[in-house]
Amino acid sequence: MGSSSKDQLPPYPNAARISDSQCYSQYTASLKCLEEFSSDKSKCQEHFDVYKECKKKEREARLERNRSRSLFS
């Protein structure tokens, strides 16, 4: 298995639904880690935490945008 550049992430079927997310690279990195260490998921915890934090920030930004676009303002 050859190493690929960081720009060429492996295609994951479920990744398409978040490919426009700011957290796409964190998501695919966590999946790649799971592939590499499937027998020891604890080695991927840092990837999970980074992705979770990214999604939290993304959600907060989306909520803030929605507040500013309220139909009632």
From TrEMBL:
Domain annotation CHCH: ranges: 23-57
Protein name per UniProt: CHCH domain-containing protein
Organism: Lactuca virosa
InterPro entries in the record: CHCH, Cys_alpha_HP_mot_SF
Pfam families, per the entry: CHCH
Keywords of this entry: Disulfide bond
